Amino acid sequence: RQMCIRDSNDIVAVGATNRPNLIYGLGLSVKWKGLDVNLHFQGAGKSQFFLSGKCIRAFSEGQWGNIIKGTLDNRWVDADTAEKLGIAANEDPNATFPRLSYTDQGNGNTTIYAYTNNYRNSTYWLRDGSYVRLKTVDIGYTLPKALVNKIHFNNVRIFLTGTNLLTWSSFKLWDPEMGSNNREKDPLSKSVTLGLSVNL
User: Against a cut of 0.85, is the pTM above it?
Assistant: First the structure.
């Protein structure tokens, strides 16, 4: 079996920057009788990043072996390792992810950096960080003036507000707005609020 030792002599710049080169937003408002709907969309484009970190590269930082669900699917597993672990072998050269490596391998005086080769930055690990998000949606209903005046109020509005409810992105492993390449930041939370606004 031949093993290939790679070096850094063929490295070239690829992709866009990991900070978006384009940030945009769009607001829409509709009002009909007492009903009002307000939408705010936010997006970012021209951004790419490399997958990295221990959540993608198991065992890359000491004894850590937990990785994101789904990144074990269709991993390359040689027959010897599969037999030791009691799992099915997968030597498909088009496997979605490379083999899991715990340590670098050596053969005498030459060290073969299998782990380094498996995860060397390339277009294989490059992901599109662009997204469009429904940042805020606000739906409200203002009670009729005649009814409100009878209960001695000036204005009463019932509303439902949601934030970060929907995101459209080709990247699915985590929230693209996190600006993270390793899933080690907390994602933005979704929230829904039901409220009542009263003007005396």
Answer: no
